[in-house]
Design a protein that fits this description.
- The protein is mostly beta strands.
- The chain contains 1 helix and 15 strands; from the N terminus they run βββββββββββββαββ.
- Strands 1-3-5-7-9-11-13 form a 7-stranded parallel sheet. Strands 6-8-10-12-14-15 form a 6-stranded parallel sheet, with no helix packed on it.
- The model has no long low-confidence stretch (mean pLDDT 95).
């Protein structure tokens, strides 16, 4: 699918919801090339049982970026995602950047998005977010395994395994001081998470205003203390909460 423009916004008195630019589900060998999306939800989302997906030269305005997920919602129906490449992506005033969102491990009748869910297993592996240019993105990099749970007491119960994820060549600005929050479930810590040439500054710094030190939150990264060729490249300097809101509206 190439050369697409998607506008899912409204000028009326009524708001729009669930305005994803595009989602994959039960999909294999899908390409997105030269897309521009303006909306208020995910730009292009890779959902359950999707593999060999390539998204290149994508521009997103006012969206929630390029996520894997949500995944792991339904007990008994595992989601598997692998071999995903997002590259050459521009995000302008987005809530999120390149990220992964999974459900908590214990099912709930009512969750943060008003739906029933949680307890689905599966995995996401071999995912690369490459060549991202950010302009005032609230939270550029996020891994959460409790996207709609909210209850910290169940937010480390996910059995969804995340592994071999790379964020490479990220430049531009975050809206706040929080550049990344990576919280993997304590039940299944994440191996193989890597930053390569992630160089993001806060918007305040970019315009010469006083700003706080950049924050990189981490929790349950299997290789967090590795050195040498196995080093993650992630400059963790704060513990990642397990129930962080998807789109922070403040400094940390």
């Amino acid at each position: 699918m190439a050369n697409m423009f998607v506008n899912s916004t409204t000028n009326s008195n009524y708001s729009t919801v669930n305005t994803d630019g595009s989602d994959t589900w039960n999909s294999n060998n899908v390409g997105y090339y030269n897309w521009t999306v303006e909306n208020g939800d995910d730009c292009i989302a890779i959902k359950g049982n999707s593999s060999n997906i390539h998204a290149k030269n994508i521009t997103c305005y006012h969206s929630y970026g390029m996520p894997i997920g949500s995944v792991g919602q339904q007990p008994g129906y595992p989601d598997y995602v692998e071999n995903i490449l997002f590259e050459d992506v521009k995000l302008i005033e987005n809530g999120n950047g390149g990220w992964i969102k999974a459900w908590q491990g214990k099912p709930a009748l009512v969750t943060g998005n008003g739906d029933t869910g949680g307890g689905g297993g599966g995995s996401a592996k071999n995912v690369t977010f490459k060549n991202f240019v950010l302009d005032r993105v609230n939270l550029p990099i996020l891994v959460t395994e409790c996207i709609y749970g909210g209850d910290a007491s169940v937010c480390d119960t996910s059995q969804f395994q995340i592994s071999d994820i790379t964020w490479q060549n990220f430049t531009g600005t975050s809206k706040y001081d929080l550049v990344a929050s990576l919280h993997c479930s304590s039940e299944v810590p994440c191996p193989g998470l890597r930053f390569i040439d992630v160089n993001i500054t806060s918007y305040n710094t970019s315009i010469g205003r006083p700003s706080l030190p950049l924050v990189y939150q981490c929790a349950n990264l299997a290789d967090q203390n590795a050195t040498g060729v196995d080093a993650t490249g992630i400059p963790c300097n704060q513990w990642a909460p397990n129930n962080l809101t998807q789109t922070p509206m403040m400094n940390y």
